[in-house]
């Protein structure tokens, strides 16, 4: 059995057991946090809006929705736009020297 197959099997077995309540609560907390940060970013983070405007050049419509707006983009573009929003005001792992938020970390 390949490693990929073993990983898929392990995930399927875990899905059948469900999430422990503690993990489920954390997942809900992190989803709510991401949505709230994204909504705040759409209203108050010009850098996120500039990123979305830049990636949207020449793109018309789509099925993916940008959080906090009626703006729709192709799914991959919407995912990128929503990621920009989710990170624009999120400082959970900021590097003080570089003043950047290098990566998403849902486990903090």
Automatic annotation (TrEMBL):
Alphabetical list of InterPro entries matching this protein: MmgE/PrpD_sf, MmgE/PrpD_sf_1, MmgE_PrpD_N
SUPFAM superfamilies reported in the protein's UniProt record: 2-methylcitrate dehydratase PrpD
Domain MmgE/PrpD N-terminal: 7-102
Protein name: MmgE/PrpD family protein
Organism (species): Bacillus salipaludis
Source organism phylogeny: Bacteria, Bacillati, Bacillota, Bacilli, Bacillales
């Amino acid at each position: 059995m390949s490693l990929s197959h073993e990983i898929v099997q392990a995930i399927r077995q875990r899905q059948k057991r469900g999430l422990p309540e503690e993990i489920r609560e954390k997942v809900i907390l992190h989803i709510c946090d991401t949505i709230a940060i994204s909504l705040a970013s759409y209203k108050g983070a010009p850098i996120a809006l500039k990123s979305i405007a830049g990636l949207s050049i020449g793109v018309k419509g789509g099925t993916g929705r940008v959080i906090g707006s009626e703006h729709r983009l192709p799914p991959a573009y919407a995912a990128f736009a929503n990621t920009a929003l989710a990170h624009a005001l999120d400082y959970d792992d900021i590097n003080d020297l570089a003043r950047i938020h290098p990566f998403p970390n849902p486990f903090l």
